[in-house]
Write a structure and sequence with these properties.
two-stranded antiparallel ribbon; alpha/beta
Length: 300
């Protein structure tokens, strides 16, 4: 099964890598914490981060576990630690950032469908989660919680030097080559340097096709399909499928839909069925305030 983390034992301690969206592929923090629990409690840990964030509930659980770990925890941000990933970074005894790395903090956000009571319950849950995040950033930086709250509300991105000045990182390292491509469209203040890097990785290398043979005399050849139009339509279809799966809390289903070229109508039907079947598990994994069981919630 594909996962968003890896744990590799070293001669002394272990190296943990989180190089994807936290909580993706149907793998929750429960699996991560189970693997982490197999390590000696005093083992030194190196945590490498390059993640756009993900499930804030999973991030809080990981942060708390790392803070309780008796051994030294060194965090290196190998590109981006945004949203929930930046909160996990705060568990490090030392946080190292290469010159071209970025760290981002913002208010948690969520999705809910239901009554006005469901909406109010979600707002209350987000307020509680946000307060917990503020305390974690403030504890690491030494800044006042009011100052941190304003930076989170503004969705603030820090380069390495700014993060160190702010107290959210400790050590500056040499630049690194960003090794992953993430969808940053959900953020409103993404730095242009990241946008350009992500776009460059998204654009495939083009190869000039061989000239098409000329049609035989008397044959009727239709108009040549426009490669740019085909690519645009394919990317729009893929993005819609991925967005639908994330909205339904089933991101692991996207790959299967894309491989089978499932129609959007069938994708929606399959996600509705999956959510209906998964509701009891979702409620148990992510406690949700409010009495209405029909509410669909997700927090980032």
């Amino acid at each position: 099964m594909k996962t968003w983390y890896s744990i590799c034992a070293l001669d002394e301690g272990a190296e943990i890598s989180i190089y994807d969206e936290i909580g993706a592929y149907g793998v929750s923090a429960k699996a991560f914490l189970a693997d982490l629990g197999k390590l000696p409690d005093a083992a030194p840990l190196t945590l490498r981060l390059n993640s756009p964030g993900g499930s804030v509930f999973d991030a809080v659980a990981i942060y708390n576990t790392l803070k309780r770990h008796a051994g030294n925890v060194t965090v290196t941000i190998d590109g981006i630690a945004a949203s929930a990933a930046s909160y996990i970074a705060m568990a490090g005894d030392e946080i190292i950032m290469p010159e071209n790395a970025f760290l981002m903090i913002h208010d948690p956000s969520g999705l809910v469908m239901g009554t006005a009571a469901d909406m109010r319950s979600m707002a209350e849950a987000l307020d509680k989660v946000g307060a917990s995040l503020i305390k974690g950033y403030a504890a690491k930086s030494g800044k006042a919680e009011d100052e941190i709250a304003k930076l989170m509300a503004a969705e603030t991105w820090f380069d390495a030097s700014e993060a160190i000045d702010m107290g959210l990182a400790d050590t500056l390292a040499a630049p690194v080559k960003m090794a992953a491509r993430f969808d940053m469209s959900g953020f409103r203040n993404t730095p242009e340097a990241i946008v350009a890097t992500m776009k460059a990785k998204a654009d495939p290398v083009t190869v000039e096709p061989e000239p098409a043979p000329k049609p035989a005399v008397g044959s009727k050849a239709g108009p040549e399909p426009d490669p740019a139009t085909i690519r645009t339509e394919a990317m729009a279809y893929a993005k819609t499928v991925v967005d639908l799966c994330r909205l339904a809390g089933q991101p692991q289903m996207a790959a299967g839909f894309l491989e089978a070229e499932t129609s959007l109508e069938d994708v929606r039907k399959a996600l509705i069925d999956a959510r209906a079947a998964a509701d009891p598990d979702i409620s148990a994994t992510h406690p949700q305030p409010g009495p209405a069981p029909q509410a669909k919630r997700g927090v980032m």
